[in-house]
């Protein structure tokens, strides 16, 4: 397990001094990457083979919104890992009370960076990664996010800029969530968010969003590229 402690900063909140939803995802992402970099044997093997680990899905359950200047603790750990994929929990706590504010599970796949195709690494490379107990404070929903079979509300397209790009050269996963929430008519804090990441979007790509409202409390946002390929499908349960 890796733990980071931080205070909710002014640049991370909205006009009501609540942490933006994408900021909460960023806390999780940053803690997860610190943990990933600490896996020396696995990272050495990935570097040697020209490979990386790409996020494929995330479910986030939000219980209480962090606020400006609140001290928080973020913890992450791996609960399942094989030569092809791995799964981790990441949990955000209030530092003073250790109340759970948000909890997540996320899946990642090993990928050949040159081809962008799934790949695998030897068992030897992952033998030292500590596998810990799966977080039992949330219901685990399917990682696949279905696109509703109905007419959606097509939104204005937008462009992926350099500021959206991460160290892998494609759109950062928290940036995708920011794009999703920006497609909606008002700011939202979904109780449950499920995201399925598919085709990576790169700088200069045009993104075409569609919003599907299947039920009163469920909204699905799909981001497609100029070829019509799905980059992200994201279900928000309010």
Automatic annotation (TrEMBL):
Protein name: Acyl-ACP thioesterase
Listed SUPFAM superfamilies: Thioesterase/thiol ester dehydrase-isomerase (SSF54637)
Species for this entry: Candidatus Enterocola intestinipullorum
InterPro entries: Acyl-ACP_TE_C, Acyl-ACP_thioesterase_NHD, HotDog_dom_sf
Domain called Acyl-ACP thioesterase-like C-terminal: residue spans: 156-223
A Pfam family this chain is assigned to: Acyl-ACP_TE
Domain Acyl-ACP thioesterase N-terminal hotdog: 7-126
GO molecular function: thiolester hydrolase activity
GO BP field: fatty acid biosynthetic process
Domain of life (superkingdom): Bacteria
């Amino acid at each position: 397990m890796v733990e980071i402690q931080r205070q909710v900063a002014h640049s991370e909140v909205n006009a009501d001094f609540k942490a933006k939803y994408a900021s909460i995802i960023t806390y999780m992402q940053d803690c997860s990457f610190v943990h990933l970099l600490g896996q020396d044997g696995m990272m050495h093997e990935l570097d040697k083979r020209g490979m990386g680990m790409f996020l494929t899905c995330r479910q986030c359950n939000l219980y209480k919104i962090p606020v400006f200047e609140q001290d928080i603790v973020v913890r992450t750990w791996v609960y399942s890992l094989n030569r092809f994929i791995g799964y981790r929990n990441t949990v955000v706590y209030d530092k003073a009370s250790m109340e759970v504010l948000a909890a997540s599970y996320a899946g990642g796949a090993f990928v050949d960076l040159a081809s962008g195709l799934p790949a695998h690494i030897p068992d030897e490379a992952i033998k030292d990664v500590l596998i810990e107990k799966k977080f039992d404070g949330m219901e685990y929903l399917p990682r696949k996010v279905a696109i509703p079979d109905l007419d959606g509300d097509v939104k204005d397209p937008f462009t992926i800029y350099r500021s959206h790009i991460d160290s892998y050269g494609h759109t950062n996963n928290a940036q995708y969530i920011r794009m999703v929430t920006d497609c909606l008519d008002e700011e939202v804090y979904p109780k449950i968010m499920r995201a399925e990441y598919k085709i990576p979007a790169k700088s200069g790509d045009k993104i075409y969003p569609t919003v599907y409202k299947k039920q009163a409390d469920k909204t699905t946002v799909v981001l497609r590229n100029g070829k019509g390929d799905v980059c992200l499908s994201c279900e928000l349960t309010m």
